[in-house]
Design a protein that fits this description.
Blueprint lengths: L1 H4 L15 H4 L8 H9 L1 H7 L18 H5 L11 H14 L2 H13 L6 H13 L3 H15 L5 H13 L3 H14 L7 H13 L3 H10 L9 H13 L3 H13 L6 H14 L2 H13 L6 H13 L3 H13 L6 H13 L3 H13 L6 H13 L3 H13 L6 H13 L3 H13 L6 H13 L3 H13 L6 H13 L3 H13 L6 H13 L3 H13 L8 H13 L3 H13 L6 H13 L8 H13 L3 H13 L6 H11 L2 H16 L1
Family: Belongs to the PPR family. P subfamily.
Pfam families: PPR (PF01535), PPR_2 (PF13041)
Protein name: Pentacotripeptide-repeat region of PRORP domain-containing protein
Amino acid sequence: MLISTFKGKYPTFKLFSVPSKSHSRLFSSRPSSITRHFNEHSEPQCRRRVATPPQESAPDIQDPPIADTIFRDAHKLGSYRRGDSTFYSLIEYHAKSGDFKSLEMVLQRMKRDKRIFIEKNFILVFRAYGEAHLPHKAVELFDRMVGEFQCRQTVKSFNSVLNVIIQQGLYHCALEFYDYVIDNKKNISPNVLTFNLMIKALCKLGLVGRAIYLFREMPISKCEPDAYTYCTLMDGLCKENRIDDAVALLDEMQIEGCHPVTATFNVLINGLCKKGDLARAGKLVDNMFLKGCIPNEVTYNTLIHGLCLKGKLDKAVSLLTQMLSSKLVPNDVTYGAIINGLVKQGRAHDAVHVLLSMEERGYKSNAYAYSALISGLFRDGKSEAALKLWNEMMEQGCRPNIVVYSALIDGLCREGKPYEAEQFLSQMIKAGCVPNAFTYSSLMRGFFQVGNSDKAILVWKEMAEKDCMDNEVCHSVLIHGLCKDGKLTDALMVWKHMLTKGLTPDVVAYSSMIQGLCNAGSIKQGLNLFNEMKSTVSNSKPDVITYNILINALCRRDRISHAIDLLNSMLDQGCDPDSVTCRIFLTTLKEKLDPPQDGREFLDELVVRLHKRQRIVGASKVIEVMLQSFLPPKASTWEKVVQGICKPEKILAVIDNCWGDLFC
């Protein structure tokens, strides 16, 4: 039962369970098991959350908060009279200020003076405990209401404590508290708010099935679900990926005569957008207008974010314009989603216009939007525009954080300007912004790019001196740069250092080491490392770049048959050849064979093999190389690939996309 739950696991939650002996002790004069549970599990957490913990020491009865002189001098204080309203005003005052010691002293003074306690004063204190993150104190006071203060508990005080517990995220405790009170307090019957709170707790715990059961029990308790009930249950269903059930609940809601509100539609639209079903989300928006619900900021923000996830940036920008014309305010997520989406599509210039539009409307951009834009502009080769944006950001008073600094440093390094990037690193440190492994990795990559491997190693050492935790990426950058610079011995040293630290090499580190070994003529060692790479259980499986490195090394050593075996292994592992793979074999067949071959038959056969494995995308890439090299495939091969590309299901998928565009 309940007491056993605070020793370990929670029991299976049940509604209206049979009372047990353990329940009878919960609301006694001694601390209840629920109270003990809160004291054990909640109080330390509360102490961490509250900067200045409220005073909770035992009341000093000898030093009452209301001096008797106040009442003796009442005639001098006008309308101030000694009465219950005075105590109630004090309770309200101390509850708002969070002075729980004085609150307890007021309650004790009222008890001594035999004043009448009313429920609404306790509710004020419950709320104060909730704001102070002290739910266990609210449970304690609820425990004392009847026995100590002779104040009858009703569903109002019960709901107030239940809400305090749920607001602190203690959902299991809320279930326990509900189960106990309903079982033992026969004078308290749950109302709609009670059911709403419990459905919320169950949904937060992922117990949607039990939430539905409780929802179906509401009419038995003569409680009709309201819009909030349906909204909470729909949200729980959507989070369990039960979108169809959530939409069906909307129809049931209207049949039962409960009118949906904007928040109801927002929950469903959010669920559909996360699923990527924008067509149905668009239909729901139309349904909103039919039901007299006006889309709000949440509706627009959700739709815009969904469109950005699907890559429909033009529609997202159009919806943003519509949102602004409706005098609705976008949030950081809205602008961030559009800006990030445009940048990912290589449209950083358009993203800058969105940023300017924000600022013209008096909306200040945050550092994350600037970081995405700066990265995008550098990626598009517009370094001057990126630096100009940096200066504008500083003029706007937006303080750069580690993300913006790192984006700027990475962009300058990619432009071959690591020395300028190093100056910004110094500025970053002076500003109190601590660089991370990504920042240092970008700088190392920049120095390797300009051929200064010694400086890159110095940056790595500086990172160690700054106690910055290096990771797999840092080692990969070092190994790649050293191998490319022909410093195989140094690369092997870094490799060993990486393994000693317990770090797992990624695909870049493996591929770089294999290339370094092959370039040094140690193809056998490279193949051994390749076999080790294939046997790992991590995410460092060989990719097409790894295969190309070895195939190229083998072909240069005239080991063409071995290279073809590796190509067969590549196909068996589900890795498709790319244009580099094709051109390696074209060059080899032309230069290494006697008589030379143009490679047309070889690539044609490769296309057929890929087609047989239903790898149409890979086959199309090989066809593309053949056409660029003026080596047309056989008519039968061409026909197979075209039929594979134009399969009926693929055509249907295109039609579905068109329908999606119409609705969104």
